[in-house]
Write a structure and sequence with these properties.
This protein starts with a helix and ends with a helix. The chain has a two-stranded antiparallel sheet with strand order 1-2. The protein has seven helices and two strands.
Length: 141
């Protein structure tokens, strides 16, 4: 009876060890995935820093902190899935060439911000004391 009890305890210990190893492996995989995600985010941020003019980059960072939905819209417009998949290749090209020939100006970020918010451009005309948009002014004539 003592042998069967030792065997049961031994089997139970084996099961515990296997379960513990599986949990450790799962935790290690999660940590690696998290490190890789942070790494990709850092790489995308580096590319944005290089491709955008400094004031455009600052404006984008400001939007990221204050208006995350607008930032996400602009980010999706600027950084497609192909960019994320080929991020290492893009960084290698940027480093080899020493930057990019033309940078994206702040106007583009503002345009995308207005598009995300649904703000349409308006031209206002002042005639005497009356201020109206250009469309109304032209229809009135």
């Amino acid at each position: 009876m003592n042998d069967s009890q030792n065997t049961d305890e031994h089997e139970l210990e084996k099961i515990r060890m296997k379960k513990m190893q599986a949990l450790m492996e799962q935790k290690r995989r999660q940590e690696n995935a998290q490190k890789q995600t942070v790494s990709v985010q850092d790489k995308v941020d580096f590319v944005l820093k290089v491709v955008l003019e400094p004031d455009a980059y600052q404006h984008l960072k400001h939007l990221q902190q204050n208006e995350p939905n607008v930032y996400q819209y602009i980010f999706n417009e600027l950084v497609g899935q192909e960019v994320v998949q080929n991020i290492d290749y893009l960084i290698a090209i940027i480093q080899r060439q020493g930057g990019v020939p033309r940078r994206i100006p702040r106007d583009v970020i503002v345009y995308l911000e207005r598009k995300a918010k649904g703000i349409k451009s308006q031209i206002r005309v002042k005639r005497g004391d009356e201020v109206m948009d250009l469309g109304s002014y032209l229809k009135k004539e």
